[in-house]
Task: inverse folding
């Protein structure tokens, strides 16, 4: 693994519980309140992704930077035929595997410890998602190109906005914890998506995020 990827892996191995508690709400009253006020766009992004991924039932998904498997396992719960989740953090991948076992979904999921650029699937997927991923990708174009190459249907992605109060705060907070982070203007997102070869796509602003659905 390259140095930047090792840094990501180390950071996410340490941050896993804190990150997952944003979904589980297993926090103090104040912690949950702060999430609802400051991170509401993460919850909306989840709904956005599920809506845009329809029809989910019977289809195959690739979840790049799958984290604790919240998206992957929701696709399974909604009837997906098969889901592959990939991540550079071994703790994230272990958690996904345990959760899939508990759900009785081990035979419909594959969770792999790998970076997308090293992953060469032997089949294409119907849908590929990269949610909360591009915040941590230094060179996003090859990643978007590869995501495009892995699907027959659509690619769903999110990008954090550059010109917001949150961007510099996150940049400093994450930087102090050894995690590089990256932020985007709408023009940059549009240029990246077009350079990757997409012609049919939508960009929606949800809070401090750009959510993109691009058709292959
Ligand atoms: C903010 S979490 C998002 C997890 C999940 N997509 C979600 O939204 O709940 C970002 C995840 O991306 C992973 N990640 C960062 N860079 C990666 C890369 N180059 N390839 C694969 N995963 C990566 C991290 O390990 C982490 O688990």
Result:
């Amino acid at each position: 693994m390259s140095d930047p990827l090792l840094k990501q892996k180390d950071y996410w191995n340490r941050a896993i519980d804190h990150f997952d508690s944003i979904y589980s709400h297993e926090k103090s009253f104040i912690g949950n309140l702060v999430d609802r006020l400051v991170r509401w766009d993460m919850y909306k992004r989840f709904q956005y992704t599920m809506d845009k991924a329809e029809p989910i039932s019977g289809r195959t998904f690739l979840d790049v930077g799958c984290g604790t498997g919240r998206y992957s396992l929701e696709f399974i719960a909604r009837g997906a035929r098969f889901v592959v989740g990939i991540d550079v953090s071994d703790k994230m991948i272990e958690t996904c595997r345990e959760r899939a076992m508990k759900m009785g979904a081990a035979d419909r999921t594959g969770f792999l410890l790998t970076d997308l650029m090293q992953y060469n699937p032997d089949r294409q997927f119907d849908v590929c998602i990269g949610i909360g991923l591009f915040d941590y990708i230094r060179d996003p174009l090859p990643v978007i190109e590869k995501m495009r190459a892995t699907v027959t249907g659509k690619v769903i992605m999110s990008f954090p906005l550059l010109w917001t109060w949150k961007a510099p705060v996150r940049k400093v907070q994450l930087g102090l914890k050894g995690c590089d982070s990256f932020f985007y203007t709408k023009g940059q997102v549009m240029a990246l998506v077009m350079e990757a070869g997409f012609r049919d796509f939508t960009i929606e602003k949800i809070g401090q995020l750009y959510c993109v659905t691009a058709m292959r």
